[in-house]
Structure formats: C-alpha cells, structure tokens
C-alpha cells in the first residue's frame, strides 16, 4: 500500500518533465565526427550548420525538420512538444 502514492507522484512528475523542452543538444559532424554542444532556438529551425573543425556545411536528412533532429542527441523543441 505504501507504493501507491509514490506511483501517483511519479506519474505527475513524468507529465511535468514531458512538457518542458530541452534546449541544449550535442551535434555530431557527419564528416569528421566532432561533437559540439549548442543551444537550440526555441522558435526557429536550423536548416544549415557549419562544423567548426572541418568547415563542412551540413543540412538535415530527408524527413527531418532541422539539423538538430538529424545529427543531435536531442530533437528540436518543436518536435519535443509534439511527443
């Protein structure tokens, strides 16, 4: 019986964290493999990104809305809100 309140509070926290988007993502360059931690814009999509090491310009893969959804470890805030 003691675990029942814990389950309810866990569900409440899970819903709370689901609503708040994460604004930092680690991008990995597809050519040289360099990783860089960047802040994602909350109200715009980034279509092009230039690597700081190899100076390569990369764009999103087909079916993705931005570079962060294709090459980042966290999808963009717009896609996080749609979950």
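^ Assign residues to that structure.
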């Amino acid at each position: 019986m003691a675990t029942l309140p814990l389950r309810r509070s866990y569900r409440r926290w899970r819903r709370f964290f689901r609503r708040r988007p994460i604004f930092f993502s680690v991008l990995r360059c597809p050519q040289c493999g360099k990783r860089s931690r960047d802040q994602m814009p909350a109200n715009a999509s980034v279509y092009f990104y230039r690597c700081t090491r190899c100076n390569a310009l990369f764009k999103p893969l087909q079916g993705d809305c931005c570079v962060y959804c294709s090459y980042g470890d966290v999808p963009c805030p717009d896609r996080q809100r749609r979950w």
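DSSP finds three helices and four strands in the chain.
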